[in-house]
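Please produce the structure of this protein holding D-xylulose.
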Amino acid sequence: MNEYFPEVEKIEYKGPQSDDPLSFRYYDPDGEIDGKPMSEHLRFSVAYWHTFASESSDPFGAGTRERPWEEGDTPMERAKNRARAAFEFMDKLGVEYFCFHDRDVAPAGDSLEETNRNLDEVVDLIEELMEETGIKLLWGTANLFEHPRYANGAATSPNADVFAHAAAQVKKAMEVANRLGACGYVFWGGREGYETLLNTDLGLEMDNEARFLEMAVDHAEKIGFDGQFLIEPKPKEPTKHQYDFDVEHAHAFLQKYGLEDFFKANIEANHATLAGHTFQHELNYARQNDMLGSVDANQGDKLLGWDTDQFPTDVYSTTLAMYEILQARGLKPGGLNFDAKVRRPSFKPVDLFYGHIAGMDAFARGLEVAGRLLDDGVFTDLLADRYSSYNSGIGRKIVEGEADFSELDEYAKDRGEIVVESGAQEKLESILNQYVLET
Ligand code: XUL
Ligand code: CO
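Below is the modeled complex.
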C-alpha cells in the first residue's frame, strides 16, 4: 500500500516540539487519559466523500484537486482505485474508522439492479481492504440528496414513487452496512424539508419521514442489523428549512412518533452553528437526554453563513466538546468522524494529511484539557455549589415534586430579601483559558 501517497510514511506521534508537519504533536494513540488510550476516547474516522470523492469544485469554479486515484477507463475502475487510495491513506494516518454514502464508493447504473450490483462489486474490495488493514466502518448511509429525483425530498417527497425509490436505496445501504459490520447507520435529511409552504404539506411530510424511519427500524430487525441508528440534524442547506433542525427538534420528533429508543444524534459542529447554537450546546443537550450517538467533527467560519466543513482546529471548541463527551462516558459505538474538507486551494494529496493531522491534534489536546478540567472538578464543583439550594429545604421539595404554588407563596412571603449570587462568567472563562494554555 504505497501507490497514491508515496511521499508519506506512517504518521507517528513525535510530541509538542516536533517540527515535522507529517507527525502528531498531541495525538498519541496509546497515551492514557483517565485509564483509557486516546485512540479509544477519540475513535477517529475519515469521511470518504470529502477526502476521496470530492474534487473541490465550488459554484464558481471547477475542481482543483490532484487525485491520482481518479484514473481508470471506467467509473468502476476509478471507484476501485479510490477505495485502494482510501485505505492507503487511512492506514498511513492511523485512523481506525471510516464512513461513506453508497454513491461515494460506487457509481450509479442505469437501473436500481445495476446500481446495486456496482455497489456489491466495490464493497467486495472494501471488505478485503478492511480485513487487510483492520480499519472498521463507523457508519454507512445513503445519498438521498444528489440525484434530481430528490429535488423535492426523499422520504418527504410529494411523490410516492420517490419515497419508494429512497426506501429501496436505504434498504440496500443498510444491508451493505450490516455486511461490513458497521457500528451505526446515519440518516441526514438534506432534502427533507421545504423551500416554500405554498406547495408543502408539512404535516404529511413529517408523518412520512416517521413512517420511513419506522420501516428502517423494522428492516434492521429483519436483517439482524444491531448498529446504532443516528439522525444528523441540520437546520438548512441545501434545503431552506430542514425538518431535523437541531438535536432538540429531532428528539421531539422521535418522541412524537415513539421512535426515541431506536435513534441517537450524530452531532456535527458546523450544523450546530448553522442552527444558532454552539457545538457544546448540542452535545450537552444530547448528553442530558441520552441522545449522544456520534459526532461529525469539523468547524464553520464565523464570517461565512454556510456549512464550510473546515477541519476543526479551534482548541477552545474541541476542549468543550471533549468535556461533554467525557461526561457522557464516551461516544462508543459512535466516534469522531471528520466530515471536513480541505480548502479549494489546498489541492495536493498531502494536504489531506495536513487537514486530518490538524483535526486529530486539536481533539487530542482538547481531550487532555477536558480530562484535567474534570479531574480538578473545576466547573463540576462549581455547578454543584451553584444549584445547592435544591438539595435541602424548599428546593428539595420543588425537585421532588412535593411543592405547590400555595406552599411556595407562603414560603416566599416569609423569606424577606433574597441574596442572588454572581454568575462570574468572566472568571470562569479566564480559568478555562488557563487550562487550555497550560495543560
Ligand atoms: C452534510 C453532511 C452529510 C452527512 C452524511 O452537511 O453533514 O455529509 O454527514 O450524509
Ligand atoms: Co455530517
